[in-house]
Q: What sequence folds into this?
């Protein structure tokens, strides 16, 4: 396939490189980042998108996605797929898909989980929204860049799945960290706490697979000085998207809101930026009730 790839940052560059290595003809554009090996450089987003069968975007947020979409939709070939893999708000995903459909394009929103490691290794999980036709056309690309792709429903459903999952993840991380900090103060050994909770009703992916306590459970960012992993500021971004969506949909999400507030405090006022999102544990460790 001829693929235009816009946004060659931490995630986009390895994803584009994997598509090129699999034999696709990839033309890339980024305002700042260089093109990875095997990817030809275009002078603009529109140049990268022209004549492409699929244009893949991997951009920081919904406003930037909307701006890039306005540039490229008019020049894309009819029947081509606009595949956005960024994490953005549901409304932007739906607005871009509508504009694409009006221009006789197929649109798929397919945010990813798996981080930079998954992008490099080609083991991302894609959660996709859009038509059956659009999903079928890009499924072979998901196979190259990832290990699993779930078609979640109509446009925006991929973004909805991503932010709901990450809202659970953020809330669970905070709950697990505050429980560890309480256990410390009650004199409970962390290994014993893990042994009990990981096999009792408090178990979770956070506790069992990504334990925030160093030296306990399987290897995780806690064992590497809380180097990300999944950075706290990215968790904050996703929690804010979940609350933006909850407001639009009139959904009551008190714990999601509280998790967003706590990560905002951690990232913006307490030096949490650049640390893994499990560094909530050392944060709670240092605190009392005031
Ligand atoms: P990044 O900041 O490293 O990359 C974004 C790139 O977009 C940058 O290179 C930037 O120069 C480029 N860009 C910005 N505006 C542009 C424009 N108008 N035209 C062309 N290029 C433009 O971010 P990232 O970590 O690669 O993340 C990309 C997306 O993936 C985000 O939406 C993020 O939330 C999501 N995501 C990231 C991770 C992760 O672990 N990093 C995990 C899952 C999802």
A:
């Amino acid at each position: 396939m001829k693929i235009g790839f816009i946004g060659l940052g931490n995630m986009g560059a390895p994803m584009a490189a994997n598509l090129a290595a699999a034999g696709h003809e990839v033309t890339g554009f980024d305002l700042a980042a260089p093109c990875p090996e095997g990817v030809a450089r275009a002078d603009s987003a529109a140049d990268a998108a022209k004549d492409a069968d699929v244009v893949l975007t991997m951009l920081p947020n919904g406003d930037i996605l909307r701006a890039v979409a306005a540039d490229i939709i008019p020049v894309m070939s009819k029947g081509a797929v606009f595949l956005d893999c960024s994490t953005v708000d549901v409304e932007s995903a739906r607005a871009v898909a509508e504009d694409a459909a009006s221009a006789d394009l197929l649109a798929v929103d397919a945010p990813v989980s798996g981080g930079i490691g998954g992008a490099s290794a080609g083991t991302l999980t894609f959660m996709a929204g859009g038509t059956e036709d659009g999903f079928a056309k890009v499924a072979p690309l998901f196979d190259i860049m990832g290990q699993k792709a779930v078609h979640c429903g109509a446009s925006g459903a991929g973004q909805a799945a991503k932010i709901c999952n990450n809202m659970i993840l953020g809330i669970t991380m905070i709950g697990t960290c505050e429980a560890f900090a309480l256990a410390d103060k009650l004199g409970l050994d962390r290994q014993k706490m893990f042994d009990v909770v990981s096999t009792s009703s408090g178990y979770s992916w956070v506790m069992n697979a990504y334990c925030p306590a160093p030296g306990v459970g399987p290897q995780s960012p806690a064992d590497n000085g809380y180097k990300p992993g999944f950075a706290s500021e990215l968790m904050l971004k996703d929690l804010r998207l979940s609350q933006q969506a909850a407001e639009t949909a009139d959904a009551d999400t008190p714990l999601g809101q509280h998790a967003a507030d706590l990560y905002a405090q951690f990232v913006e006022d307490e030096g949490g930026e650049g640390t893994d999102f499990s560094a909530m544990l050392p944060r709670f460790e240092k605190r009392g009730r005031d």
About this structure: The pocket of nicotinamide-adenine-dinucleotide is lined by residues 6-12, 29-33, 45, 58-60, 64, 67-68, 86-87, 112, 115-116, 234, 237 (CB under 6 Å). DSSP finds twelve helices and nine strands in the chain. The longest strand covers residues 146-153.
